[in-house]
Amino acid sequence: MVKIGFIGLGVMGGPMAANLLRKGYQVTLYNRTPGKMDKLLELGGDQTQTPAALARGSEIIISMVSHDDAIREIYYGDNGLFSGLMPGTVIIDCSTISPALVRQLAAESAARFSDFLDAPVTGSKPAAEDGSLVFMVGGDREVLRRAEEVLLAMGRKVIPMGPSGSGATAKLAHNTIVGINVAGLVEGMAIAASGGIDAASFIELVQSGGASSKMADMKGPKLLERDFSVQFSLSLMLKDLRLSSELSDGLKTPTPILETVKSLFQMGESMGLGDLDLSSVANCYEQWINKRITSHAEDRQGHQEFAASAETAGHNHSESAADRRRSERVELQIPLKLSIYQWEQEGAFSGQLLEGTLCNLSDSGLQIATVSPLELDMFVVIHFPKDSELPPVTGRIIRIETSVNQFRYGCLLTGLAPYQRLQLESYINKHITAADGNSVPHS
User: Fold this and answer.
1) N or C: which end of the chain has fewer CB within 10 A?
2) Quick check: helix, strand or coil at residue 9?
3) What is the pTM for the complete model shown?
4) What 3 state SS string does 175-225 have?
5) Is 382 exposed, middle or buried (0-12, 13-18, 19+ CB in 10 A)?
6) Mean of the per-residue pLDDT values for the chain?
7) What is the pLDDT of residue 438?
């Protein structure tokens, strides 16, 4: 059986490689970051340390990574794929990248007496797991015929799109429609929520009427359950929309809807939603209309009761809790994740994820603690525990205190809707109640 090399074992690549292994293929694996191939090794995969080493032992190479820069690193970097490529190899790139880069890779492969197919996929994580992906393929038809059996081991359909670059172009056009569909679904739900329509009933209507779509079927249940676990991340959707925008500019094709939807997903990313599912863009609308768009009737009643209690009887409770926080500094120790972004050249950001704790809530923001030094006026994205049901929130460091083995930061919150502020207050007050009797004065 043909020897396959697989590069990129993330949300999509991992399940795709697993399907090849389950169907008996000999697969050698490479991933830029460690820790993602243990299950694949258990299925019989072999590990290699560099793309060049993988290329030297493979007859078909499949790559599935996130963006153009990652492709350039894998193909052209130190010990990159091209430095070990053997004549006669078929390369299949399933990433969503720019058509211009695809044509460059195809030319480089031909110069090394190898063949290249651009074969991006439609279908998110569930389709990758159950082997129902659809491949849209650019490149020579005869080469595709030789590779089709391998593609069908990971998917249900292979559609030839034309010469090199055609698969990438088709994918960007396709994902433009996906982004527009999701934005339309969420916007319609926002209108319905503002008009007092039950979200579950509205989703049932959408799925039964002229507004039905695969995105409504896939994302409707996730929105109702507020399950923003990743099938396809918001940041990747935004990356594809940006690529599509650049492509349409080059093709001199007007795309006013694309540009509007791209801006919407940019807002979502600026709110810290990039690592969540693209359906999490619903949080943007919830801030604008100051209510959840996905709540059921009973949830809305509970929210109204909560808001009323916070406005009336809740004053004494919140004031006493605030007084206690100021006087005693109750140590809440609620675990947080903090995304720290740094500006790089050409308008890009690089980021890292830190562990932190929520120590206190003030009128203007939060006090958080980490073991890592941050700087005044630095912006961080705060990820609350899942049970808080809060979206990521952007905060600016406005105060720094040092203590033994850690730093404490005062964070001014931005972009937190009033109802979410009430939700945060309630969440923290529950922890204060739980910590009652165990509070330790803090000087």
Assistant:
1) C
2) coil
3) 0.74
4) HHHHHHHHHHHHHHHHHHHHCCCCHHHHHHHHHHCCCCCHHHHHHHHHHHH
5) buried
6) 86
7) 53
